[in-house]
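ok so for the tutorial part 2 we go from a plain amino acid sequence to predicted structure tokens. step 1 is just haveing the sequence, like this:
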Amino acid sequence: MGETGVIHYLRTGDAVTQAVAWLLLAMSLLSWCFLLVKAWIVVRARRHAPRAIAVFWQAPTLSDGVSAMRRDDTERVFTPLAEAALHSLEADVPGALLARVDRGDRVMRSLRQALQRSQRRLEFGQVLLASIGSTAPFIGLLGTVWGIYHALGRIAQSGQASIDSVAGPVGETLIMTAFGLVVAIPAVLAYNILGRQVRQLGEDLDGFARDLHAFALAPASPAAAMRAPGVAAAPREPGTSRAARV
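step 2 — the prediction. this is what the tokens look like for a chain of 246 residues:
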């Protein structure tokens, strides 16, 4: 009885069969690397998000909240939004060029840019997983078709469909089909599971950005804007103007 097994069929295959096998192996390794890295980032971000947001709003000032969030937001998903709000409010300093821009527009633009950066960080690698999950079965199908072509060629040469003439090509066909599915299934599952987690984090980011925007516009002065929610401003003395208090 001839030698059988996956290694034997791959070793005895032609250049096309081996190229398809190596390509599927590279795609599998790449998808698993991105899968593990993305899972690490997303899981840590979701685990630390509640505490990071809580310590931010409990801080006495906006700058203190940003510093506290930097310690808890290890993946820097929510911190860029808080930093953007802080920088946009610091532009209220008299004489700054950005002080001439309406505060609402300035804060909205800064938060939108920070939100886009955070979302791009979370979505990094999703396109790769989707591409591998959708193309791997077809690459495996290419190896399948090529194995069937070999089987038909051997049948034509021998004049009969004997086991010896078609065992090798049929083995290559089954192996390529299995390899394509083995590569595609984890990539598709990872894309769906991680995509759901990323969408939930995106909703949290959007809500945090809206809260920051409302908080930045609510106070009547830049000094009051540095206070966290729930911290009352100093009482205004009768006859004291707003400019004197600033």
